[in-house]
Design a protein that fits this description.
CATH class of the largest domain: Alpha Beta
Number of domains: 3
Number of strands: 22
Helix content: 25-40%
CATH architecture of the largest domain: 3-Layer(aba) Sandwich
Largest sheet: 7 strands, mixed, barrel
CATH superfamily of the largest domain: von Willebrand factor, type A domain
C-alpha cells in the first residue's frame, strides 16, 4: 500500500487494537494533509460506487436488501402444558394453562407485527400431537404455515385459546405420551417450512415454548440427533430461542438438555435471561408500535478533510469526489429514538377497495386555449420529462434554470459523507446544542475492509481523552452540509452481562449563531427562600427517571386500537393506559404533605397586606 504523507502541526495518536495479538499499535496520524489514494485495497466496488453516485443509497437494492423476518412458534404440547394450571404470576385473562399462554404470546406477537412490520412472516407449529401434518414426522402439526399476518390468522389462534383442554383434545386428538420424544423431527419440520418460503428472509427464528427440561429423556440417540439438527439450523442461519414456561413442581434446569442444544455454554444464561424478558414483554404488550430499525444510510467518514481546491473541483464537476486522494472508512447511520408519525392516508377505489396509483403527466395546450379542460387524445400531446424547461418570470423575461441548478449540484460544497474537522472537550458540549433528531453511527465493514478497526480506534481514543469530534455532515449529494458533534458512547452491560447500549458515536446537529435567540424578560420579584425550599421539596418528591420510549403516544394507541377492532370485527376497541395524564392519587400519596405546605405558604402571602 503506497501513501504520500505530509506533516502538520495538529496530530492525534490512535491506539489500534490487534485482533490476534495482546499488544496494541500506536499510530501517529496527521488529520490535515495525510494523503492516501483510494486505489489501495480499501477501495472495493461498493465504496467506489458510493462515492461516484450520491443516490446510490436509495437506488441500489443491494444496499437496502429486503430483510423480512420469519418467526415460527414451536409449542411443546405436553400433558402439563395442556391441562395443568399455571402459577399465579403467569396467569392472565383466559390463560390458565401453559398452552393458552403460548397461544397468547403468539397472538400478541402477530398483533404487534401487523402494526410495526406487516411484511414479516409468522407461523405456528404444535408438537407432541396425536395427529401429524406430514407422514415423515411424528406428532408435529403445522397449525399455521409461515405467512404474512392477517386478521383471519389472529382470530384462528384466538379460537383455539378459548377452547377448554377437553375440547382441544377432542378436536386435535390425544397427545403423545412417553418418556422420550424426537424433538429433532419438529426442528426438521420448521427448517422445511423456512426452506419452502419463496420470499427472501433476513432473520429466521424458532421460538420454542416448553415446560419440559428434558424432552428426549434417556434416549441417547434422540439426543445426538437433536444436537446435530440444532447445529444444522445454526449453519443455515436459523436461531433457536428458548422460552421456558415454569410450572409448579417442575424444576426447569437448562443443564439437563438445552445446554447442548443452544449455541454455547457461555451464552445459555444470556439467552434464558432474554427469553424471560421477552416473555414478560409479550405478555404486557399494550399496542405499543415499534417501527422496524433500519439504517438511514451508509456513508464514508473522512479522517482527512478534502482540500479547498479539491472541494471546488468536485463541486463544479471538473473532478469527481471519488478521484480525490483522501483517507476514509465506512459507517452506517441509524436513528435510535424518533417520533412515530401517524400512518399515511391511502386513496382507495370505491368499487373494488384497491389502492389508487396517482401518476402525473404534462400535455401540450394550444396557444390561446385558456379554457382547456381534460386531456387531448393522442400521444403527440404528451410532454416528456426531458423536454420540460423550468423557469421563473422576472419582469418581462423568463429566467431558465438547468437541471444541475435545480438538483443542488452547484450548491454542494463537500462530498456526501462525514468530514472530520477537529476535536473539543466533552465539557464544552452543552445540553441544548441539538437542533434535530440525533443519529447513531456504527461501523460498516461492507463498505470498506478495515472499517471496524478504524472506527474502534477512533472511538477508544475519544473515550480515553474525553473529547467529541466536530465534523461536517453531508447526508446525500445535493444536500446542505451541517456541523455536527460526534459524541462517543462506550458499551454498557447490565449486571447479568447483557448489552444495554452499544458502542458508537451519537450525531448531534450543532446550532449556528443565528439559531440562538435572546429574550428580554420582564423583571419579577424573587420568591422568598422558604417558598423556594417548599417548591424544591415537591419537585424532589415527584421526580422520576425518564426514558423516551417509556411513554407511548396515546393518540396513536387509540388509532391503532380502532383499526385492530375493525380488522378483528370487534365492537369495542381495547385502549391502553394513557401515561400522559397525571395520576392524582399517586401524586397525593407521594407529595401530598409537601403540596399542602406549599399551598399554605402561598395563601399566607396572598392574605398579607401589600
Amino acid at each position: 500500500m503506497c501513501a504520500h504523507f505530509q506533516k502538520h502541526e495538529s496530530s492525534l495518536q490512535l491506539l489500534i487494537p490487534q485482533e490476534s495479538l495482546d499488544k496494541s499499535l500506536v499510530v501517529q496520524l496527521s488529520f490535515s494533509y495525510l494523503v492516501l489514494p483510494l486505489s489501495t485495497p480499501m477501495d472495493d466496488s461498493a465504496f467506489s460506487d458510493f462515492l461516484q453516485n450520491g443516490d446510490y443509497d436509495s437506488g441500489n437494492p443491494e444496499w437496502f436488501p429486503v430483510a423480512r423476518d420469519g418467526v415460527i412458534f414451536l409449542v411443546d404440547c405436553t400433558a402439563t402444558m395442556v391441562s395443568e394450571k399455571l402459577p399465579e404470576a403467569l396467569v392472565r385473562a383466559g390463560t390458565d394453562t401453559g398452552l393458552k399462554l403460548a397461544l397468547l404470546l403468539c397472538q400478541n406477537f402477530m398483533r404487534k407485527k401487523a402494526l410495526s412490520s406487516p411484511d414479516d412472516m409468522v407461523g405456528l407449529v404444535l408438537m407432541r400431537m396425536g395427529t401429524s401434518t406430514s407422514a415423515e414426522s411424528r406428532g408435529v402439526n403445522i397449525f399455521q404455515n409461515l405467512d404474512l399476518t392477517d386478521a383471519s390468522r389472529v382470530l384462528a389462534i384466538e379460537k383455539i385459546r378459548e377452547m377448554s383442554s377437553k375440547k382441544f383434545l377432542e378436536c386435535y386428538g390425544p397427545l403423545l405420551t412417553g418418556e422420550s420424544y424426537p424433538i429433532h423431527e419438529a426442528l426438521w419440520v420448521c427448517q422445511s417450512i423456512f426452506n419452502n418460503v419463496r420470499k427472501s428472509l433476513g432473520y429466521k427464528r424458532i421460538f420454542l415454548l416448553t415446560d419440559d427440561p428434558d424432552p428426549v429423556g434417556s434416549g441417547i440417540q434422540l439426543k445426538r440427533q437433536a444436537i446435530l439438527k440444532a447445529n444444522d439450523l445454526r449453519q443455515s442461519g436459523i436461531e433457536i430461542v428458548l422460552i421456558p414456561v415454569q410450572q409448579d413442581g417442575i424444576d426447569f434446569k437448562k443443564d439437563t438438555f438445552y445446554k447442548h442444544l443452544l449455541p454455547s455454554e457461555t451464552e445459555i444464561d444470556l439467552l434464558l435471561i432474554e427469553s424471560s424478558s421477552r416473555l414478560d414483554k409479550l405478555l404486557n404488550w399494550e399496542g405499543l408500535q415499534e417501527p422496524r430499525r433500519r439504517r438511514l444510510g451508509r456513508l464514508p467518514l473522512y479522517l482527512v478533510p478534502l482540500t479547498p481546491a479539491a472541494l471546488i473541483r468536485g463541486a463544479i464537476g471538473t473532478e469527481c469526489f471519488s478521484q480525490v486522494p483522501t483517507l476514509a472508512f465506512g459507517v452506517a447511520a441509524y436513528c435510535l429514538v424518533r417520533r412515530v408519525p401517524p400512518p399515511k392516508q391511502v386513496r382507495l377505489f370505491a368499487k373494488t377497495n384497491e389502492a389508487i396509483t396517482v401518476k402525473r403527466r404534462f400535455h401540450k395546450v394550444p396557444r390561446g386555449d385558456q379554457h382547456f379542460r381534460g386531456v387531448k387524445e393522442g400521444i403527440g400531446n404528451v410532454v416528456m420529462p426531458q423536454d420540460i424547461v423550468r423557469g421563473l418570470r422576472v419582469g418581462n423575461r423568463t429566467v431558465r434554470f438547468e437541471k444541475s441548478e435545480l438538483t443542488g449540484r452547484l450548491r454542494q460544497v463537500a462530498a456526501a459523507g462525514i468530514h472530520l474537522l477537529g476535536f473539543k472537550s466533552l465539557r464544552k458540549l452543552k445540553l441544548w446544542c441539538q437542533l434535530k433528531t440525533a443519529q447513531f453511527l456504527f461501523p460498516e465493514e461492507g463498505m470498506a475492509k478495515g472499517s471496524t478497526l478504524w472506527f474502534t480506534t477512533l472511538l477508544s481514543a475519544c473515550l480515553r481523552k474525553q473529547v467529541f469530534a466536530v465534523a461536517l455532515y453531508v447526508h446525500r449529494r445535493g444536500m446542505s452540509p451541517h456541523l455536527v458533534a460526534l459524541v462517543p458512547q462506550a458499551e454498557k452491560l447490565d449486571e447479568c452481562g447483557a448489552q444495554v447500549s452499544g458502542p458508537g458515536f451519537h450525531v448531534l446537529y450543532l446550532p449556528y449563531r443565528e439559531d440562538f435567540r435572546r429574550f428580554k424578560l420582564s423583571k419579577c420579584p424573587l420568591a422568598e427562600p422558604e417558598k423556594v425550599r417548599a417548591a424544591r421539596a415537591i419537585v424532589k418528591k415527584l421526580s422520576t427517571k425518564y426514558h423516551p420510549e417509556a411513554i407511548p403516544n396515546p393518540s396513536l394507541q387509540r388509532h391503532y386500537a380502532e383499526l385492530e377492532a375493525l380488522a378483528l370485527e370487534r365492537t369495542h376497541s381495547h385502549l391502553g393506559v394513557d401515561y400522559t395524564q397525571p395520576d392524582l392519587q399517586r401524586i397525593n400519596e407521594r407529595a401530598g404533605r409537601e403540596i399542602e405546605q406549599f399551598a399554605n405558604l402561598l395563601s399566607q402571602a396572598s392574605e398579607e397586606p401589600s
